[in-house]
């Protein structure tokens, strides 16, 4: 597997200013990814809450 830091260094050296643009894009993408992960976590919790079985009275809901 290639080392991401080595790849970035290579890009920086070979592409000059363009590599800075790539770093900014990468940072923005990481931020978006983290936000998406947080949103997925919230949605999973909402789904779990919505599909959790509700507690039923021991008598099956019948009046005694």
TrEMBL record:
The keyword Coiled coil applies. The keyword Coiled coil applies. Keywords: Coiled coil. Residues 19-46 form a coiled coil. This is Uncharacterized protein. It comes from Georgenia satyanarayanai.
């Amino acid at each position: 597997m290639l080392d991401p830091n080595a790849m970035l260094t290579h890009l920086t050296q070979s592409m000059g200013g363009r590599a800075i643009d790539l770093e900014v894009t990468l940072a923005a993408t990481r931020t978006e990814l983290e936000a998406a992960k947080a949103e997925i976590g919230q949605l999973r919790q909402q789904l779990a809450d919505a599909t959790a079985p509700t507690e039923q009275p021991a008598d099956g809901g019948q009046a005694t």
